[in-house]
Each structure stands twice: as C-alpha cells, then as structure tokens.
Write a structure and sequence with these properties.
Length: 334
C-alpha cells in the first residue's frame, strides 16, 4: 500500500529544515576558515617573536579556552546558540585584525586570547544548535549523520582557507590575517540570518548554571570520561598545527607548499568526517575511541623519524583520518 503523501504543513516544515541546515553548514564552512593557520608561526617570527614566545602563545590560547569553555557554554544556554556563534565570529574578526598589526608578545597574547574565546563561543554552541534544530523537527536521531556532514563542511572550508592562506603568504605574511577577518565577518552575517527557537526552561545565574554543569559531569562517570578523552585528543590535534609548520619548513617547504599540504590533509579529513556516521553501524564506541587515540599517538612517534618522503606523507594522512574522525565521533557520544 502506498503511504500517504505529506501534507502542506509537513512539506513546509521539511523545506524550512533544509533551508536552516544549508545556512548552518555555510556557517560551519566559514566560521573556522583561518587562512593564517599554515603560516602563523612564520608570521610571529617575522614580527620578532622567539620560538619560546610562539609556543608560550599556544599555552595562553589553550589556557584561555579552559577558563572560558564553561562560561561560554552557559552563555549559549541562556541567550541562544546563534548569539554565541555570532559573537564567536566577531571575536575572530577582532583577533585577526589585532594580530595583523601586532609587533609585541603582549599584543599577540591578546589576539590569541580573542581567538580562544572565538573558538569557545562557536564550538559546542554550533553542535547544540544543530541538535536542537533536528529535535524541533522530530529528527534528533539524524544528529550523528548531520554532525558528520557539518564536520565535513568545516574541514572543507579549512582546506580551501589553508591553500589560499599559503598562497597569499608567499606574497605577504599579513594577508592571510586580513582575509580571515573578512571571512569571519561573512560568517557573522550568516549567523545573523540563522533561525533559532527562543530559549526554553528556567534562567539561572551564570554561577548556578556553571556549577550545575560541573556537577552533572561529576555525577556521570561515562560523561566525565569522554570529556577527559576529548581534551586529550584535542590537545594532540591542536599540536599538529604547531608541529607541522617548523617540521615542514625544516624539510624545505615554503608557505605556498605548506598551505597546499595543509589543504590536502584537511580534504582527507573532510572525506573521513562525512563517512564517520557509517562506522557506528560496524564498530562499538570503545573500539573507535581507542583506535583513534592509539593511531594518533603512534603517528607522532613515527613523524619524529620520518624524512621528507612517502613515510612522512603517509603519517600526515593518518593524522588527517584522526582529525576527520574526532568531532563527528565524540560529539554524538557526548
């Protein structure tokens, strides 16, 4: 028997969902397209920072993320995911423009702090927005598949940005920062046109909301474990951004070649991210989680002894696969 055709109301709701998903994917494509990623350490060195100072900036970036992760999540809960994402995009505009004219460690530290706040505002809020959007249409079960697609869009945006950033840096190391500010401004405009239901439920103070979130993690052992796991893998993946630049520079690659290699790595990650949801049907969470962590750790050990030939490229591909798996694997579990 042929099922009844959907009525006008269902068709309208489906059309609205498709429109909202396209807008959301566009935001994910733009919001973290940082053209300066393949060359920021070269840029900072050009502005007179020592290698130790450049690594210290990475420490400041990570410390700020730790400090603001819960407060920015509370902000998204209280005032809306879309507002958090909008402010995150605007924070990256400020970070890029400040870094562009920075010539001291202190100024770079402020720019890095703004960049960390940008990531904290967008990351988490975007996934929560996607889940809420699907749940409002009775399609929360599609979240793993949609998160895989969203992660793929994010990684494709990064790949294009890295290739463009490397090419621009071959002319002027400051250009990737300027274009990143422009791309982040477009992401802010996209966030403005995204639709979101009003915040539901009781409105708590920031302190009570933050303590409630921490208490929830403390009560739930599985949740605490996956939060800790995510932190470890995030650090390893973040380390690649710092390691690749001097590593590739030491092997004779210039800014343009580095950008292209970064782009290739992230395109592989995008393909993996897009297909991650299909792995859930074949493997358990624990198998996927431990495989991801083990392969990522071994790849770093291998890179230490690899030259500039096929082994280096193979290990970069391994890390690309891990990068593609990370977000669409851990977020549905969280």
């Amino acid at each position: 028997m042929t099922p009844p055709l959907p009525g006008p109301h269902a068709e309208r709701a489906n059309a609205e969902l498709r429109r909202d998903l396209r807008t959301f994917y566009l935001f994910r494509l733009l919001a973290t397209s940082y053209l300066f990623t393949p060359i920021f350490m070269l840029f900072q060195a050009d502005r007179g920072l020592s290698f130790f100072e450049r690594l210290a900036l990475g420490g400041i970036y990570s410390a700020v993320i730790v400090l603001v992760e819960v407060p920015t999540g509370v902000f998204a809960d209280r005032f809306g995911r879309r507002r958090a994402m909008l402010l995150g995009a605007l924070a990256m505009v400020g970070s890029s423009l400040l870094a562009l004219q920075a010539d001291s460690f202190a100024t770079f530290a402020i720019a890095e702090s703004l960049g960390a706040i940008s990531i904290a505002l967008c990351s988490g809020a975007d996934s929560a927005y996607l889940y809420d959007l699907l749940d409002a249409h009775g399609r929360a079960h599609e979240y793993p598949k949609r998160e895989s697609a969203a992660s793929a869009w994010h990684l494709v945006g990064s790949a294009v940005a890295f290739a463009g950033g490397g090419w621009l840096a071959s002319y002027d190391l400051g250009l990737p920062y300027l274009v990143t500010a422009a791309v982040a401004a477009v992401a802010a405009v996209v966030a403005c046109v995204m639709r979101e239901a009003p915040v539901a439920g009781p409105v708590l103070t920031f302190g009570r909301h933050s303590l409630g979130a921490l208490a929830e993690v403390a009560r739930n052992g599985r949740l605490a474990w996956i939060v800790g796991y995510s932190a470890v893998v995030f650090v390893l993946l973040r380390a690649t951004i710092y390691v690749y630049q001097p590593y590739l520079h030491e092997r004779g690659l210039g800014p343009a070649e580095t950008g292209v290699l970064f782009a290739g790595v992230y395109l592989i990650a995008a393909v993996v991210a897009y297909r991650t949801h299909t792995l859930y049907a074949r493997f358990s969470d624990n198998v996927l989680l431990w495989s991801l962590l083990g392969v990522l750790a071994v790849s770093f050990v291998g890179l230490a002894g690899a030259g500039a030939g096929p082994w280096m490229l193979a290990l970069l591909v391994v890390q690309a696969i891990a990068n593609g798996l990370y977000s669409p694997l851990t977020k549905p579990i969280l």
